[in-house]
Amino acid sequence: MKIRTSIGVVLCAVCPAIASAQTPVDSVKKEVPSIFNLNVLGRTSFNIGQNADRDLNASFRLDETRLLLSGHINPDLSYKVRFRLNKSFGTTTQDNGSRALDYAQVNYRFGKQKEWEVILGKQAAAVGSYEFVNNPVYEYAFTDYVDRILNLFVVGATFSYKVNPNHNFQLQVYNTSTETFDQLIKTAGYGAGDFKQSNRPMGAYLTWEGNFLKSFHTKWSYNYSQLVADADNHAISLANMYKSKNTKVYLDLQYSDYGVDHTMLASSAIHSFYGNAGLDRTMRRDVVYKTAVLRLDQQLNEKWGIALKGAYETASARKDKTLGQDFRKNWTGFAALEYKPIANKDWKLFGGYIDNKISYKNGMNIPTQKNNRFILGTFFNLTAI
Q1: What is the DSSP letter of 65?
Q2: pLDDT category, 24, cuts 50, 70, 90?
Q3: Where exactly are the structural domains of the chain?
Q4: pLDDT tens by residue, 262-276
Q5: Exposure of 285 by Cβ count < 10 A (0-12 exposed, 13-18 middle, 19+ buried)?
Q6: How many other CB atoms are there within 10 angstroms of residue 58's CB atom?
Q7: Phi/psi of residue 252, nearest 5 degrees
């Protein structure tokens, strides 16, 4: 109770000061960076679908709830903290954060033209993916690449250099996983086998962001990382986007070669095929993931718009001749009609359909998984302060 009271007193004291600081003292309006901003993000949906027995089921779901705190201490120093309120606040073993914490970072710009920037703390991975960069409440369904393969929010440091207003290069160094190797296999019920955690369980992104003709944008990245000793991971991610006043289209292409599959997405299917059980279940070597995702957002008029998305993903066992290429295939897609009641507020009502199908190579005898459903709901990204 004392903590809540203290927070209330601080906000009551700070908010008027912020408002006062932003009030122009003359007839010329100047944009003064705010020291404190609070955004509330969320998406709630009513889902109607069928289970494995073809029985109709319906339920409400709280898909997303996040709080974003951000601000500028001065024009060159800023911060950002974001929480996911429907994720665990338990401490992760590798980076001492939590799954509920997306960001806890400070940004500092420097140089004669402020062309240099350093970002320190927990931050977004510098991966080439517009699906990930997109506000999470807008994405009705994520690919496996974003939802299950990537470490999206990483603890580390990013150094960026803006060559000119249209081109920017970044180098990000980060922890490969939020959890240690021992914790990962414990949670999954796997055995360690002959694997040991690397003495440097870290990774690095080299990323280029480009802007062409003010409408075409790119975010391409190469990633090297290691979690298990003597097992290197390499990934190339090519994100491309066209954006105009009423239209936005992005195409993401990803290729990831894991020396050891610490995501365990493909490993689980491989073990199901070979019948490994108990401590014989270990992370598999030489797994390749490929993803292609295309999304279109088209604003029809001031209030109505449509969102269409399709993604195709595969997993391969690079050195396993029995399973070979693309033994696991995942199709994800959705179509949604969106309605914006208030023109100047980021709040929409939606209705749509999500289609998801995961199938396996003939002979693996693993049932096809389907998750198809109709959705009705709302999402919002509102500035509270």
Answers
A1: E
A2: very low
A3: 2-22+33-383
A4: 999 999 999 989 886
A5: middle
A6: 10
A7: -110, 135
168: left (phi over 0), alpha (psi -120 to 50) or beta: beta
What sign results for the dihedral spanned by CA atoms 278, 282, 284, 289? positive
Structure tokens at 43: 């998406």
The pLDDT assigned to 16 comes to 41
Distances from the Cα of 190 to the Cαs of 187, 218, 268, 360, in angstroms? Answer: 8, 39, 10, 22
Instruction: Give 300's DSSP letter.
Output: -
Structure pTM?
Answer: 0.89
Q: 2.40.50.140, 3.30.428.10, 2.40.160.10, 3.30.70.1030: which CATH number matches 2-22+33-383?
A: 2.40.160.10
**Structure confidence by residue, pLDDT tens digits, 341-356:** 999 999 999 999 999 9
Question: Which of 135, 141, 125 is CA-nearest to residue 221?
Answer: 125
Structure letter (DSSP) for residue 91: B
The pLDDT tens digits of the residues spanning 141-181 come to 999 999 999 999 999 999 999 999 999 999 999 999 999 99
